[in-house]
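The protein record reproduced below.
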Amino acid sequence: MVIHSLSSAHAGDAAATTPYTFKAGYPTGASGRHAAEDADFQRAVTAYRFWYPTVSMQAIFEASHGAGLKDNEAMFVMATGPRHVGFTLNSDTPYAAAVLDLRAGPIVIDVPPGPYIGLVDDHHQRWIVDVGLPSPDRDKGGKVLLVPPGDAGEVPAGYRVGRASSVQVFLAVRALPLKGEPAALDALRAVRIYPLASAASPPPIETPDMTSKPMDFTPLRWEDKLEFWKVLASILDTEPSAPEFAAMQGLLAPLGIVKGKPFAPDARQRALLERAARVGRDQLLVSAWESQRADKQVWSDRRWEWAGLIADNGNFETPSGLDLEARDRWFAQAIAASPAMFRRTSGAGSLYWLGLRDSSGAYLDGGQHYKLSIPLPVPAKLFWSVTVYDAQTRSQVQTDRDQAALRSLFELKDAGQGRRLDLYFGPSAPRGQETRWIQTVPGRGWFVYLRLYAPAANAFDGQWKPGDFERVAVESLAGPV
């Protein structure tokens, strides 16, 4: 047998592309330590990005607990506004939400007939089941039975089943405000949750209105700190291990996060984990705002992008495996996922387009003024809206005006039936157009979601397109459109 060594040219190429030194085929001591440190950092960044949705969901749970709401016993309702800090929450439809703990046994979600849109996601923000219009029940009402992990018991007749892989899950339901927001809030209170064991005589639940109360559903306070890893370690200790996550849990062991063991990182691990949290968070935001994917563009002649890169799949699955870039991009911007949120077919669910650049390609600037032209009629069978979000918090922009959305059912309901509707964005309002204006904050970047509910076919085939954001001079905004 002949053993070949690297040629000097090959060895030189290798030395030019790696910081590690090998002698006679073996790494030197210093190179070994350097490579091990680099490997741990790479593992930490990869782990951060993968587990971000899990930690983000924990922030939602803690917002509910912080408001004094008990799992399985309370479901809050709210008409969302800028005071509610949550990744791309919208003001289009009031929300009801509840944290459910399946350690108590199977839980029933009983949705009455009506225009509801809802889902249940697990602790890792993986889709379990839809309720209401996106589900087979449509608007007829129905009962879903949420089953804990490993429960192989027989499902009684009359229920659709949702099998959870985590013990804590999240229920979110929206009621379409076809008759106004107060009516929709009342409709949400008609949704019931109760243990299967009490199905013969369901106990009442609390339904507090959180509309006027500030709440923070985000992991912003953790996401670039060691606290991110503390929260993750706690979650993995309480939730069952998912076999499909084995490789990702394996990444955590060298970092001091092992199920069943205290998280007590040493000084080296602390410094590495804090750095990985900052880098991982920034990489997620690059996926959100500067993805190199060509398929992010909706139209070749517009700056609009798809908020979700994957179509008709609630768990980012493809024949080749998980679409990790699509997953990173979505959970950096948003919370919760279901197939209905990503459908690109006529009449299905809701459609989300992301606008973060003006017609020149520059990011939207809170200190500048812009006009957005929307051709009429908008191809939404129910309604549509434009909502402004802060690029740093990924939540509705907070201003003295306390308004971040323009909605066809409310602010724009009397906008007329012309050929187009011009909307305005900037730190000050154009004279006479205050009702078509959203205030922005100088020094802060912002983006919008343009949402169409029950989109028509021409929203997808290119026959209808919104304009791009056009930067305009303040003096040009003085008169009527």
Observations:
- Residues 126 and 315 are 6 Å apart (CA to CA).
- The two ends are 84 Å apart (CA to CA).
